[in-house]
């Protein structure tokens, strides 16, 4: 069986200069071919018919076409050839008379080519043919619309009409690197920029939680499979646990979150190099204390970032972002990603002076930053599996096994003030005696405990690091 579609491209495309227009149409056609291949279509015919695109294929791809950037509307159509106006009125009238039965209807016609009748004339004659079968003509509030496109000697009768995503064909606007955590914000930010024709690759920082990273990868995959026809994005994975551990030891509490953000910009700048035209983040003014306008300024200045940062969500409220994530299909997965890294559970400065931030940020050794980048792993979003990378990171756990011994790695006075029920202080245990036990280590942010767990694993001790550190273990202690 063959399916036929008439695709209306975004209004911006036909009005571009001829050179640009040709490039945009060519990219759009190639992206549609990519979709057809993904959907298993074996034969197809693609044709540009005065600004629209006609597609005939063996697979039903109506809804998929509505998700190709650069497509504004898509309709399933019936195609017919005709000799004159009478012939066409009869052909369409016979096919649509059941549709108008008992209903008020309107005929909408658009026409291009040489004909000895006008669109209005055709609409009037078809209207007259259909009227006896219907409840009358109503051009303002019809129950059904009969839409016809007449192009030279062919006519296209619309069956289903969907409004599509709009935007520009992916690949017409270069490349950008999206800082991607997979929560509500970063997928929506990535979508909005990709929709304007930009090819996006994802840069993800591993903060110590295997499940958060696995989810981030799933969200990237979902976004890609649903919307990025014509593009095979990469997913860059950078392990930040060592830097976070260092940061948690050296940087003052109130600066940690902003230093981390500055670090993300610095790394993004280095990774992007000359390959990318911009970096994308899901930041929104004031959403978190590290995202106040003043802090955004300080972080950006101190990071020395050498590439523009696009922040398409700056003016969005959280509820608007969440509505968007429902619309683009990332809501379910994103809602499982816990928001932000609990690196600084205490107060964060909402206005950090550049000089202060600079002196805190400079505590991080540049060679540690370069090492993290040098160890970066690259995955192909469509075909790779994240588990290969994460297996070695699976010392992280988010529950306490029944027989486990819990060890607190913080300073002793903090341990005295509060510790997980039954937990021992790390400095006061004899590891030799515990070497056959399962150990769960926790610290403030989950970074130090992660590194320590890795060291113990190297000694054949079954040690885990508790995900997210103090804040999270307090939660399970309560429950
Ligand atoms: P999101 O909702 O996108 O997950 P978030 O609210 O969890 O973000 P924020 O602290 O608000 O995280 O971070 C703001 C932005 O910083 C994110 O939108 C994203 O662009 C970037 N970012 C945060 N965490 C990461 C990460 N683990 N890897 C890469 N980028 C990140
Ligand atoms: Mg956010």
Give a quick rundown of the structure.
Helix content is 38%, strand content 22%. With 479 residues, the protein is of the alpha/beta class.
Q: According to CATH, what is the topology of the largest domain? A: Rossmann fold
Work out the helicity level: 25-40%
Could you tell me how far the N terminus lies from the C terminus, measured between alpha carbons in angstroms?
58 Å
> How many DSSP-defined strands?
18
* CATH homologous superfamily (4th level) name of the largest domain: HUPs
Main pleated-sheet profile:
7 strands, mixed
* Tally of structural domains: 3
Bound molecules: adenosine-5'-triphosphate, magnesium ion
Strands in their spatial order, largest beta sheet: 2-3-1-4-7-6-5
Describe this structure in words.
- By secondary structure, this protein is of the alpha/beta class.
- It has 3 domains: 3-166, VC0802-like (2-Layer Sandwich), CATH 3.30.2130; 175-390, HUPs (Rossmann fold, 3-Layer(aba) Sandwich); 396-478, Rhodanese-like domain (Oxidized Rhodanese, domain 1, 3-Layer(aba) Sandwich).
- Helices cover 38% and strands 22% of the residues.
- The chain is built from 18 helices and 18 strands.
- It has helices spanning 18-38, 62-65, 85-96, 119-130, 185-194, 210-227, 241-250, 256-272, 293-303, 318-328, 331-334, 354-361, 366-374, 387-390, 412-417, 431-434, 448-458, 469-478, and strands spanning 3-9, 44-49, 52-57, 71-81, 105-112, 144-151, 154-166, 175-179, 199-206, 234-239, 278-280, 309-310, 377-380, 396-397, 405-408, 424-425, 439-442, 463-466.
- A 7-stranded mixed beta sheet has the order 2-3-1-4-7-6-5.
- Helix 3 (85-96) packs across helix 4 and helix 5 (185-194) crosses helix 10 (318-328).
- The radius of gyration is 29 Å and the shape is elongated.
- The mean pLDDT is 93.
- Bound molecules: adenosine-5'-triphosphate and magnesium ion (MG).
- Residues 179-186, 203-205, 207, 264, 281-283, 287-288, 337, 339-340 line the site of adenosine-5'-triphosphate.
């Amino acid at each position: 069986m063959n399916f036929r579609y008439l695709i209306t491209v975004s209004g911006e495309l036909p009005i571009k200069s001829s050179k640009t227009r040709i490039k945009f149409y060519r990219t759009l056609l190639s992206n549609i071919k990519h979709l057809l291949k993904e959907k298993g279509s074996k034969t197809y015919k693609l044709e540009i018919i005065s600004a629209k695109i006609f597609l005939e294929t063996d697979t039903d791809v109506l809804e998929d076409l509505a998700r190709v950037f650069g497509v504004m509307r898509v309709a399933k159509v019936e195609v017919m050839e005709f000799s004159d106006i009478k012939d066409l009125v009869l052909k369409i009238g016979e096919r649509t008379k059941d549709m108008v039965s008992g209903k008020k209807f309107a005929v909408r016609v658009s026409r291009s080519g040489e004909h000895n009748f006008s669109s209005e004339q055709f609409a009037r004659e078809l209207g007259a043919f259909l009227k006896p079968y219907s409840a009358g003509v109503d051009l303002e509030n019809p129950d059904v619309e009969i839409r016809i496109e007449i192009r030279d000697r062919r006519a296209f009768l619309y069956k289903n009409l969907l409004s599509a995503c709009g935007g520009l064909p992916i690949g017409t606007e270069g490349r950008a690197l999206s800082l991607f955590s997979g929560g509500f914000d970063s997928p929506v930010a990535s979508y909005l920029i990709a929709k304007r024709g930009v090819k996006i690759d994802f840069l993800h920082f591993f903060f110590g939680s295997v499940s958060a990273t696995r989810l981030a990868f799933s969200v990237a995959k979902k976004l890609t499979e649903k919307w990025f026809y014509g593009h095979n994005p990469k997913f860059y994975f950078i392990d930040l646990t060592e830097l976070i551990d260092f940061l948690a030891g050296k940087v003052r509490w109130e600066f940690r979150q902003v230093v981390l953000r500055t670090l993300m910009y610095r790394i993004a700048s280095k990774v992007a190099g000359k390959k990318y035209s911009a970096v994308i983040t899901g930041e929104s003014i004031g959403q978190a204390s590290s995202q106040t306008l003043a802090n955004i300024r300080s972080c950006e200045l101190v990071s020395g970032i050498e590439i523009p940062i696009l922040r398409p969500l700056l003016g969005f409220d959280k509820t608007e972002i969440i509505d968007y994530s429902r619309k683009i299909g990332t809501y379910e997965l994103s809602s499982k990603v816990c928001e932000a890294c609990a690196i600084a559970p205490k107060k964060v400065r909402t206005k950090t002076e550049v000089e202060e931030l600079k002196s805190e940020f400079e505590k991080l050794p540049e060679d540690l930053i370069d090492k993290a980048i040098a160890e970066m792993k690259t995955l192909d979003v469509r075909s790779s599996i994240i588990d290969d990378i994460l297996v070695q990171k699976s010392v992280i756990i988010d529950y306490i096994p029944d027989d486990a011994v819990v060890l607190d790695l913080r300073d002793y006075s903090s341990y005295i003030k509060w510790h997980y029920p039954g937990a021992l202080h790390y400095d006061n245990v004899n590891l030799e005696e515990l070497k056959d036990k399962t150990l769960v280590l926790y610290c403030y942010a989950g970074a130090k405990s992660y590194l320590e767990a890795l060291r113990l694993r190297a000694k054949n001790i079954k040690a885990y690091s508790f995900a997210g550190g103090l804040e999270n273990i307090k939660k399970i202690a309560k429950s």
